[in-house]
Specification:
487 residues; alpha/beta; globular; disordered N terminus
């Protein structure tokens, strides 16, 4: 037999697909060549992204998502329902829940008792927005906010519901919102990642949620698009400093040599993940210089620090992360995901809900106010919200007030948006008179996602990626842009 033919017969499946994927490797190298001016995006101040994106002029260039893990209770914070107080202690009317599915902790809600709001509501600003006394600072910026009170989702448990909001699917494995934005739009800087993530949890809480890495993962996109998590400590990125005895010049030479070896493998196998490895080594080197400056708050005024609250200078707190979010988008980061856990109040709406609001209220309002006074709110879209709401009926014994709680509720809940071309000082959509179901202008999770992408200049039907023979997108095969809330 001809030796060449014999070699072809002996080629295994892995090697065949590895060698046949060289075209992918070439595409993945584009961002690396861009740093040397080769194959660079012609648009100034942009690194990476698809050549046809944005699809139209964006209203927002940056996105900050203040995600509240655990599901804030809409009927205690934003969705004022006078009838709820009138029906306090009475069974929930059966026509309000019918055959709807609830978590196993509730099961069948028949016979559950309605629970009034814990703190009183008041109207605020010229818009007259109803906000609970739990959130006086957010109430003070109500005229800058757009409240969406008719959100609804399909998941009844935390991890699937958060994954649904982040990826458009309840099962992990798809790209998250930040990864899609990084893939489509690239970044305005090559000194920091295009997608950054920070997490926090209130001290002493008993209802914190686990932060899974797939909440900021790239799914089937090349892993270079996944979120870079900045740790809540004095060393936000591990191994940022060079070891003793290694100079920055020596590090540069070492990385160049490693890159040459990786490029040989890339040419041989065409695996995009090899290109990702090269790019991430390069990003790590640049972050050695950019991160220390990023985390140095010495140039922040005393008034700014005071505005964010007493925890603003303490790494790992929500206040610190909100201030960091502003500093990140100032430096060109495309998407910042700030996740705060502890809202899962199954038996603590009269205790730990106060802690959650205390830790998140002032920094959330400060971020909106800070961005506005710096002229950054116009092109920065800020979102505040969780994965679902909480039941208007009680979980627990109504005669034991210190242990009052509310279960998961996917059928109506509230989030708010600010900046980025969204109409300020409005409330959109309504739940029914008990806060059970979205009854006017309902907004599904996919609608919400389509609207966020639209403000970033993305047609949600066009931002796709082919995987396993199918073109995927963040909104799956659904979603409509909620134009009514857009300026």
């Amino acid at each position: 037999m001809n030796p060449l033919h014999e070699q072809n017969l002996l080629t295994n499946r892995r090697e065949f697909f590895g060698r046949s994927a060289c075209g992918l490797g070439t595409v993945a190298l584009a961002s690396l060549l861009a740093r040397d001016g080769l194959g660079a995006d012609e648009r100034p101040g942009r690194f990476g992204g698809l050549p046809d994106a944005p699809h139209f002029a964006p209203r927002a260039k940056h996105l900050i998502y203040l995600f509240q893990n655990g599901a804030p209770t809409h009927v205690d914070l934003y969705d004022y329902k006078p009838r709820l107080k009138q029906m306090h202690g009475q069974p929930v009317p059966e026509e309000y829940f019918g055959s709807k599915r609830f978590s196993t902790m509730t099961g069948n809600p028949k016979g559950k008792l309605m629970l009034s709001e814990v703190e009183p509501f008041r109207q605020h600003g010229q818009s007259g927005a109803w906000v609970s006394n739990f959130l006086p600072h957010i109430a003070s910026v109500a005229d800058d906010l757009c409240f969406v009170k008719s959100l609804h989702t399909e998941a009844v448990n935390h991890a699937p519901a958060i994954t649904f909001f982040m990826t458009g699917a309840q099962i992990p494995g798809r790209p998250t919102l930040g990864a899609w934005l990084s893939y489509g739009l690239g970044c305005e800087t090559d000194q920091l990642p295009s997608f950054a993530v920070m997490t926090s949890v209130s001290k002493g809480t008993s209802c914190g949620q686990i932060f899974y890495d797939f909440y900021w993962g790239a799914g089937f996109l090349p892993s270079k698009f996944q979120g870079v998590k900045l740790r809540g400590s004095s060393e936000p990125v591990l191994y940022l400093n060079n070891p003793d005895g290694m100079s920055r010049e020596m590090r540069r030479g070492l990385l160049d040599d490693i890159a040459r070896l990786n490029e040989l493998k890339l040419q041989e196998f065409g695996d995009p993940e090899i290109a990702t490895r090269i790019a991430q080594y390069e990003m790590a080197y640049k972050m050695q210089a950019s991160v220390p400056e990023l985390t140095d708050f010495s140039n922040e005024t005393a008034a700014t620090l005071e505005m964010y609250g007493p925890d603003a200078k303490q790494p790992g707190t929500f206040a610190y992360n909100c201030l960091m979010a502003r500093r990140l988008i100032e430096r060109g980061v495309r998407c910042v995901q700030v996740m705060h856990a502890g809202w899962d109040q199954h038996n603590s709406v009269t205790t730990e809900l106060y802690n959650q609001c205390r830790d998140t209220d002032q920094p959330s309002a400060a971020l909106v106010r800070d961005l506005k006074q710096r002229g950054l709110l116009d092109d920065t879209l800020v979102i505040w919200g969780g994965e679902f709401g909480r039941t208007p009926f009680i979980q627990g014994d109504i005669n034991n007030r210190p242990r009052w709680g509310r279960d998961h509720h996917p059928y109506a809940f509230t989030s708010w948006l600010a900046g980025g071309g969204v109409k300020p000082g409005i409330s959109y959509g309504e739940s029914d008179d008990l806060g059970m179901n979205a009854v006017k202008d309902p907004v599904h999770v996919h609608d919400f996602q389509a609207t966020l992408l639209h403000q970033m200049g993305i047609n949600h039907e066009k931002l796709t990626f082919k995987f396993q023979g199918r073109y995927f997108r963040l909104t799956d095969v659904h979603g409509r842009v909620v134009h009514e809330i857009l300026g």
